[in-house]
Amino acid sequence: MTIICTTCKEDKEVSFFSKDISKAQGYRTICKECENKKSRERYKNNKEKYKKIEKDKRARNRKENMKRIVELTNLTCSWCGFQHTSTAPFAWHHIDATTKDYDVSTLMRLSNKEKLEEELEKCVFICHNCHDIEHERLREEEGK
Ligand SMILES: [Zn+2]
Ligand SMILES: [Zn+2]
Ligand SMILES: [Zn+2]
What we know:
Wheat Germ Agglutinin (Isolectin 2), domain 1; 4 helices; binds zinc ion; two-stranded antiparallel sheet; alpha+beta; 2 domains
């Protein structure tokens, strides 16, 4: 006995089909090969969907955290007063480098706001110019 698979339209031996007592002929109308292919596709689609959800979540976290940072900093360098419309020319400088647990940029992508605020507490929001000067100073200090 053979069955024509509804998906690939091929006429195949019943051994290529899974048994299904709810069907008239006692077998499924889609061959095992097509079934496997479909489940692989479904798995891939789910994985992509999941990846997209994760990506959206990270983007949302970032947006929310960014709002909070704008609130906190007014996008102004705490040292020289330089202002900008984005965080691009600024850095979170850890006042005491030994207290650093995470990179602020990493925390920005996560939903743990407490952790973020905790980390920000240890930092000053300064422009890259001030940051460079400060690190230069620290290097010199260490060199002494
Ligand atoms: Zn088939
Ligand atoms: Zn720094
Ligand atoms: Zn500055």
